[in-house]
What does this fold into?
Amino acid sequence: MIGLSRSRVFVPGSAVLLIVAALAPPASAGQAATVSLKGCTIQLVEGQPAYVRRAVDDLGAVIQMFTGARPEVVEVRPGSEIVVDRPVIAIGIGTATELTKGVLFQKHADLGEAFVIHAERRDTSGSGMVPLVSIGSANDPAGLKFGVLVLIRRLQVSPGDVRIDVPLTVEARPHIRIRSMYAHLHWAYNNPYSLRTWSLEDWKRYVDLLAHMGFNCMQMWPMMELLPHPLSKEDEAYLKKYAEIIDYLHKQRGMKGFVVSCPNNITEDSRGVPIEKREYFDFERLLDPGDPANLKRILEHRSDLYRTVPNADGYSVIDSDPGGWKGSPASAFVDILAGHRGLIDKHGKRPAEQPLIYWTWMSWGTGTRAQNIDDAVGGMVDRVRPPWMITVFWPEHIAACEKYGLKDKAIHFPYGLIENEPCGPLTDLRIELLKREARWPIDHGLQAAQGNAQTPLVQLPNIVAYSMVLWGEDPTDPADGAVPRLARGLVCRDADIVAQGWMSLTRENAEESLGLANQIRDLSTDETARGPLAVIIGNWQKRVLEDLAFMLLIHGRALRFADASSDSADHAALTAELTDYLLAVGTWLERTGYHNRGMIAHKPYYDPVAKALADLKARLGDEAIQAGIVQPAADAVRKKVDPKFIDPVVRAICGKP
It folds into this structure.
C-alpha cells in the first residue's frame, strides 16, 4: 500500500496557482508515465470570479463524464494544507510560484492571460514519488481560467478513466490582447447552421466553445435592420436575448461582447414574418442620412438596440454592404457615427468604457475608397467623442489607421479569411492560409483581432486554427495542430479517423473519402466515443461528425464522377454517377436549408464536377452532355429533393448563370 504524503504550501500575492496532486507507484522523477485522476477532489481557493469557477465546473463535468463520479469542490483559504490521501486538484494553492517569474510572464505582460502547466513527480514525505501538476498565472484570474481549460484539453480520457502525462510543461500566453469571433446572422436557413435561429442555450454553448478554443470576445449582428420601430413584443423578446448573451459572456466566461449594426438600413413592416425567416433584402429599406428627418428616423430605429442591449463592450457600425447612399459624402456617415455615440452615452451602462467601433469596409462617400475611408476616419477623430475603435484589413483601412495614429485602437478584421460569406455551409480547410495570414496583427503590433464565420459548426477546424495563431501556436502541427486537436475534443477514440476525414477533403481519393464517411458516421452514433467537447456543446458533437461524414460523401461522389468522365464511361454510367452526386448535394442543402448565393462554391465539392463537365463539353458538345447526362440526372434527383436546392447547383456546375 502506498503511504500518504502531506505537504503544506503557500501562495504569494503575485501568483495564482492550480495544483493537481495524485498518487502513483514510486518511480524516478524523470520517468514518463500517466497519472489517473479518478476519484479526485477539487480544492478551490476562495474569492475566485465566476468564470474561473465555471472553468472548474467544466473540468469536474469532464471527469464525471468518463469516470462516473463528479469531484467534490471545496473552497479553502490561501496557504491551506494539502493532504494527499487521494488524487487532488487544488486551485489557488501550490508550489509552482517560481514558474510565474520566468520570461513568459515578463514578455508582453500587459497582454495578460499567460499561464504555465507543469507536471512532475516529487517525494514530499519520504513515502514515495507523488505526481504534482501545477498551473500558475501571475495574479491573473483570466490566465487561471485558460490554464484550467487547457488542462482539460491535455487530459487523456477514455471510458472509466481520466489521466494526465508526467512529466509535462506547457507555457502559453496570447500574442494579442483581444481575440474575437464575429457571429454573422444575415442569411436565413435552418437550425443549427444559421445563427439567427439559435436559442439562448445555443448561444451559450457557442460562447462556451469559443472560450475553450482560447477566444475572449465575440461580436454579434442582432439584425436591427430587420426590426421595425417601435419593437413588437416578439422582436423585443428576440433582441433582449443579446443582452442575456453578453451577460453570459461577462459572468460565466470572462469574455467581452460587441454588437454591430448597419448605417442607414431599416425595416418598416415585418409583415408578420418571424425574425428567423425574414430574408434580409426582402425587407430592407435604405434612407438618405443627408436629410435630417431621415437621419433622425435612422437613429430612432437604432435607439431600440441601445435601450435593449445596453451592456455591450463595444458597438460597431459598418460603412456599407449592407448600407450606403449614392452621392452621399463621407461626412454624412460621420453624422451617423456621431448619432450612435450619442445613443451609447444616453443608454449605455458604462459609456466611458463602451467604444463606438467604426467597421471600415467598402467605404461611404463620393471619392475613391481610400479618400472616403480617410475622410470618415478623420471626421470621426474630429467630431465623435471617444472612446472609439476602428477595424482594419485592406490597405486603405491601414493607411487611415496609421495617418491618425490609431494602431492601439485598431481591430484586425480579415473578413473572409476563415470562411467566405455568403457561401454554402461546407467545410473549406484553410489551415496553411490561416497560419500565414492571421499573424499580421501580431507582426504589426495591433492589440485586437477578429475572425468571422457564417456557419461556425462547419468551420470549426478553421476557427481553432485562427485562435491557435493568435496564441502563437502552429495550427499545422501534425500532432497537436488544429485538426488533430479538434478531433481529440470530439471523440475519445479513433480521433485519427476524424482528423483524416477533414484532411481527405483536401485530397482527391474518392474511395478514401467515402470509406472515412462511413467510419465517421458510425462514430457519430456511438455515445462511448464522445470526447470532452461533448460536455461543452452537447448534441452538436454528434451533428459535427454527421456533417463531416456528409461532406465526405459529397466530395467522394464528386471525385467518382470526375474519375468516370476521364475513363470515357458511357452516358448511362456518367448519368448514374452525376445523379449520386446531385442527390448528396441536394440532400445536404435540404438538411441545412441554405438557398442563397454560393450554394456549392467550395473547391472540394464543386471543382471536380465542374471541371469534368467542362472537359466533356469540349469533347462532346454542350447539347449532347445536357441531353444525355446532366438533365437526366437532374430530373431523377428533382423527384427526391426540392428543385430549389438542385437547379442552382446544376447551373453552377455547368458554368451557367
Notes: The radius of gyration is 27 Å.
